[in-house]
Structure formats: structure tokens, C-alpha cells
Write a structure and sequence with these properties.
The structure holds 2 protein chains of 2 kinds. In chain A, about 40% of the residues lie in helices and about 20% in strands. Chain A is of the alpha/beta class. The N terminus of chain A is likely disordered. The longest helix of chain B has 21 residues. In chain B, a hairpin with a 2-residue loop joins strand 19 and strand 20. Among the domains of chain B are: about 270 residues, Rossmann fold (3-Layer(aba) Sandwich); about 180 residues, GMP Synthetase, Chain A, domain 3 (2-Layer Sandwich), CATH 3.30.300.30. Classes of the chains: A alpha/beta, B alpha/beta.
Chain lengths: ~270, ~675
Amino acid sequence: MQTTLRQSGDPDDASRLQPVYQANGLTLRFGGVVALAEVDIAIRHDETLAVIGPNGAGKTSLLNTLSGFYRPQSGRLSLLGRDVTGCSTHVLARLGVARTFQGAHLFPGLTVLDNILVGRHARMRYGILQAAAFYPFACREEVRHREAVEEIIEFLEIESIRHRLVGTLGYGLRKRVDLARALAMEPRLLLMDEPMAGMNLEEKEDLARFILDLREARKIPVVLVEHDMSVVMDLADRVVVLDFGRKIADGSPGDIQRDPYVISAYLGAGVP
Amino acid sequence: MRRSRRPIDPRGKTLPQLLVERADADGDALALRQKALGIWQTFSWSDVRDQVMWLAEALAELGLQRGQTIAIIGENEPQHFFAEYAAQACGAASVSMYPDLTAEEMQYILTHCEAVTLFAQDQEQVDKALAIADRLPALQHVIYWDDRGMWSYRHPLLLSFRSLIDKGRQAATNRPDRFASLVAKGRPDDIAVLLYTSGTTGRPKGVVCSHASLLDNAMRLDRALQFRAGGEHLSYISPAWAIEQHIGLALSLVAPLVVSFPERPETMLADFREIGVDSCVFTPRQWESIASDIRARMLDAGPLRRWVFDTGLRIAAQASRRGRPSLAGRVLQAVAERLVLRPLRDQFGLVRTHVAICGGAAMAPDVFQLFHAIGVRLRNGYGSTEFGIVAMHQGNSFDLETLGDFMPIEGSFGMPIDWRLSDGGELLLKGGSGFGGYLGQPDKTAEKFTGEWFRTGDHFSVRDDGRLVFLERMDDLRVLATGHRYPPQFIETRLRFSPFIKDVMVVGDERRDFVIALVNVDGEVVTRWAEERGIPFSTFADLSQRAEVRSLVKTEVERVNSVLPDASKVCRFANLPKELDPDEGELTRTRKLRRDFLAQRYGPLIAGLYAGDTEVRFDIPIRYQDGRRGELKAVVQTNIVQPTIVPSLRESEQPRMVASSGGRRG
């Protein structure tokens, strides 16, 4: 049996040139602390974009702003040409912005399958009463959702733990379930907050392969916040560097590695 | 879906001919099942026939000729089976390879069999194939059936399975009777598969198997084990292994069987339970993992459950030892069955299993005993890739020590299996469809024959009741001064199966006339045993030399002796006065014996045993835990198990009495 892989919103060539998600002049302040200062960022189709920077550089703040969790004081956000500035998380989620968390925020008392089905919530049309009364259309839809979830389970190779409670799983597998739940939303854009943190080498290699497959098979652009530089250099097409809330570099992984500002921000050396 | 229970007569047919006959008769009946997306997807017999037909059409379009060879590498999946049947439909032979072969191993086999087409399951296998493709001049196509990761692959050899099916479907509509005529051309003595030996001794060799030989073996199994018609078979061990060819690919068409494929190798146990299989073949490793899973789960259970479990198993074990239990015994057994055994079988999906085979290597008897106690008749088979399956434990009660019974042969496939032992104790066989030879190696093929007899290369002995006991590979035998060859590993392994014996070294080579053993008794177990019987002792050295302990070990040695030919029997032994210790260099860190070192260290003891002394005094240099060195003044009693045999007097002095007193386990 082969999986029919869904490709989200297969854009034509004209819209392909447009970024999927664009932020202009994002500024985010907490009291006197400037978390983000005039950050411009654009995520293109078919692209894995890595955001790196030292601790406190504003990486997670950027991700939280892109997902609608923080509201920026100034700046604009547009998703597929539509202005989404100030939209809250659930609106953005419905529009196709999915994210995974630094510490897999799953329901430990539910099975892997149920956790991933939660990700289908934004796509469900029937209500709780219709489901309880076994409306035929609700049943048919339920089957479709289950099928979509099973395709993701196959994609991420977690068939053997499908009925296990998430609370009994190891950290690496939990992260994979977290990714599965994000994919269940059929997102247009995936934000991943330190997906490799706390993983061993083998788990990292597995996940890296899934992220590569994700781009190749599902054509979902990914924004990746990551500390592990070797992961970033292997996976990312483009790297954005933040330092104290400012964007200090934007380019290919090779360019970034040679950039004197980046070297100084990371290694603390004086800029010549 | 309906399932067919009507057997087909396989004589004079090929596998594709049987498939077509099956699809014509039972087109809508269930044939295969594979779990995908969490649901069992089903194939009827006509679905299977269509897939095979389309694939065969496409292979013919690609130029596959009669007499050529294709190869398949991948897990057990329906596509693996379709590819084999399709190649055979075109008159080509098929080679299945273990999915974990390295690229170099693949290269050897693909070069050797001159495969023109390779079916490779997925990205991993395709990567290996493409890495060696330029060294394989015969290879024309690499066909993958799992798309994952293959989205951006472009290579002139590469084709997808699906594109082949589409192409074949087109071809089938254009030339509707080509498939039928291709299949009709097949002859039972066409080469159906090449089975590569595992290559433990040198390079793998390709054993030629005709359709007749596959079906002969399938019928041997069917006759011997009475497969349930329409029963469930789980396809798990690779078709690169002969027995899966016999059951999964051949017998499934004849009996018929419904073949199910697990979702992934890791989900096998869960899938196994969902299906409730009738027949399955696992390696010792897999049976051991089920057994240890049972034990591990019981360790987590509460004390009450553990008590119920232990008691249930004890009752079952006792019942299987005794012939006819008393009325109370029968009642207890029924209660144990209800409370413990059946639920346990249910937990592991073994409720319906009536053909459970352990094949590939020897397995510890306690694993067998566990399965027998819970009511699963786990059987051992004996056979070789070359000669097929030869013997198996049949019926409901059998002796695991022995080879079992020889397989019955269906008339037209050949004569019944006949055997004899060569002078060196090697098992020679003839009968059935026989050995078809190694591909392209007539010299190697000739080596396997003495006259018309096929040489198994395995050393056997005949027990008093006429049953055969496997001892050792001929190559691993050791020679005594008398010229007699005996199986040292067999003796050591069997002695170690005893709970009282932790390690043992068997001595005897070209300078000695008979076999002796140095035994390291298990300190913990024997201490407990001695305490229960109120036997006083001070140290390990003292305990090991107690008369009671020596006679305990003697019983164990006699038990092993009972299955050995007289000249191989352990005549004398001594219990070591200390436990063997890796810190002193007596064992390797993985607890293997360091034989040369031990022979030197215990030289006086060995000399004393051969000289026939009743007591040997010698010094053993030892190192204490704190690093100090010292000498252990050892006094070791020797033990005579049976008189030694001077070769010329062998006939007259055969110590029958001792041999028959050895306990026999059922």
C-alpha cells in the first residue's frame, strides 16, 4: 500500500515567488526589555529556514510571535498574502501555521493515536453532539481523519506505539508524536522550537531524516530554532542569525559560518 | 471474505500454474493480508493472480526470458511474493535475499546468479543496489515498491513497481492470452528459486530448487504436521530461508493457507495476536524473546498473580512429565488450563496455533519446556537448504533430544527418505526430490555426495531406541588416539543445560584414548541443594568433593552419555575445587573457556584422571581479591562414570548397563 502524500496548497509559479509567511519590522518589548527589534523575515516555499543565536537572542520570542502567542508592538505579519497581524494562535492555526514545542506538550494520559487526532481538531466540521449521535456525515469524516492520522503514523514510522499511552514513551518518541500532531493539521508552515534539544545522537539522526523527508514529500516550509549547529548546517537552506533581538545575518549556511558578526556573537571574539 | 478450504493436487505443476488454478476456483476467497494504515488490507486469490499477471506481462515486455534469474531484496510483503510468482510465470528463477545484507554481499549473490532484474523494497535497498550497479553488467532493472524517500531519485536502471503494474495491465489488455501461454510453458523441473546457503563456511552457494522440490517439501510439511486447510500463516522469516518458501509461497497455494504480513517487523507480536495464527515459523531467538517477555511480564505482576502463574505452570509441567495423571491431577490440570494457560496463550496470540516450528539453530530446552507447559506444541525441524526439510517432531508427544520422525514423501515426488550413518557417524540421506546441486559449482556439488547418498555434514548417534540424536557438525569433531571422532561442544553444551553445572571442559585429543571432563559445579545452586538435604560442608572446595555432590554430577554425566556412542562417552570426571574465574585468566571476559591455559593449570588433575588415580593432590596458584597471591592446596577425588574402552575390545566391553541407566526426558 502506498501513501498518497498530500501536498499543502500546491501553489502555481506566480505565487511560488511570494513568501509563504512574511514579517516586516517586528518589534516586541516586555517592559524595558526589547525582545525583538525591527526584525524582517520571510519564509519561502520549499524552504527550511533555521533561526540561530546565542541564549536570549529572541529566537523563541520570534517563534511565539509568528505563531500568534505574542502580539508585537509594531510590525506586520502576512500569511500567503493575507494580513494576519494581531491574529491569535487558534486563528493562525486554522490558517495553517503549526508548531512543535521545546518540551513536547502532549496529553500523557491519551494514546499516541488520540494525541495526533487532537491535531485534526482545526479540520473537524462536526460538533460533539453530532458525533455522539453517529451522524453519517460525522462518521464518514471521522474515518477520513483517522486515515490522515494513519498516514502520518506511517510517515513517521510510529506504528508500533500507536496504542501506547504517551506518558509511557521515551523523550525521543514523544518529540516525534509532537511532530505528528503538528503535521495532522495539514499545515502550510511548520514552526519547530528546538526539536533536537535533549536528544541522543540516534534520535537526532532519525528526526533530521524526517525533517528532510517532510520537505521532500510534503513540501512544507519549516522554521527551525535550533542550538545544534551541525544539525542547522545539514538541514537548513537558509539561516537567520539573531543577537539581542536584532537580525544580524541572513544567508546560506556556508555564508553564515564565515560571517564575522556571527562568529563574534557566538564565540565572543572582537570584530576586526 | 470467504476462505477456501479445498486443497489442490500439486503434482506435476508449477507454482504459477497452481496460483492460476486457485484463482479460477476460489477467485473471491481470501489469499493474503497485509496491515497498512492500521487496517488489515486483503487480497483475494484473483487479486493476487492479477497482480502477478500484470507484473509478469511487464517483465516479459522488459525482456525477461525463460531460464534467466531475478533477485528480490526486502522484508516480507505481498510485493515480494508477487515478484517471485511473476518471475516464475515467465519461466525465470527467483532469488530472495535477506534485507540486512551489505552491498558487498548483495554484489556477490547478484553476480553469481547473474540476475537481470532486482526488486528492491525501498530507499535503503535501492541505495545499496545503485552503489554496486556499475559492477553488475547483467543487471538491467532495479524495481522498488516503497516510494518513501524515492521522490527525487533519477537513475536509468530505476523503475517503480506501480509503473510496472500499469504497464503490465496495458500489455494484458493488448495481448490477453500471453500470460496463460507463458504459465502453461512451465515444467515442474524448471528452476523455481535459488536458495543461497548462509555461508558460515566460505562464500554462500546457490542451491537449485525446482518447482517439484518446493512442492515436495511443502507436502512433506503438510503431511507431517497436518496444516489446517484455510488456516492462518504469518509470514515473518525471510523467503531467503527455505522453509518460508516451502510454507509461505508453496504450501499456501496448495493447502491453501491465508498468508498475513505484519505491518512492520517491530509490530509483529501485536499483529500476531490480532490474527491468531495457525502456523508460524520463528528462529530460536524469536521464541526466546517471547518466552522472556512472558517471564518479564510476570516479574511485574503482583504476588498473587505470580503465585497463580507459577502454580499453573508447575501443574502443567508435572502433567506433561507423567503419562497418565490421577483424577486429582486431571482436575488440577483443567483448573490451571482455565486460569493460567489459556489466558497466557491468548495474551500472545497462540490460542489457535497448532503448527509452531523452531528452526535454524538449537534452542535451550527450558524454552521448549515453557511453551510445552503452556500448551503450545513447539517443534524442532531438521533439514538443510540443499536437501530440504528432512525430519520433524510429529504427533502430540515427542522427545526433544531426538531428531524426530522422518518426513513422509508424497509418491510422485520421489522415494521415501532413507538414511544411514557413515563409519564416521555422518548422516547420509536419499529420497524425496533430493538435492538439485549448487549453481555453477559442479565440484562443490560432487563433494556433497557419496555415491547416491547425500552427505549432510552432520554427526549423529543412534540411541538405544533407534532414534537419531544430532551431536555436532562433522567439521567440529575432535579425534582421539583411537581414531574415534567425538563431539566436544555437544557434550559441554548438554552438560551445561544441567542447573548444577556452571561450566565444563571436555578433554581428549590425539594423545588420549577416551574422553574426560572437568566440571565446575554451580556454587549457588549446589549450596542450596546441599542445605536442603542437610549435607554439611565448609568451603566450595569441600562441597565440590562431597560424595553426594559427586554422585549428583555423575547422574548428569550419565544422562548425557546415554545419547552418545560408547567411544564418545565421558568415562571419568572430576569436580574442580574452585570456580573458574576470568580474573585468573581461566575464562575470557565473555565467559568462554581458555582451554590451553586450563589444560596447563589443571595438568596434574588431567594426568591423574587418565592414570586412574582415585585422588589427586596438586597446587593451584590463585590471586585473592586484594591482589595477594597464594596457592590453593587442592585435593580432588576422581570419579569413574564407566569403564574405559580399549578399541580392540569394544564389542565385548560395551557397558550397556550404565548407558541404559541414564534418565530420558520426554
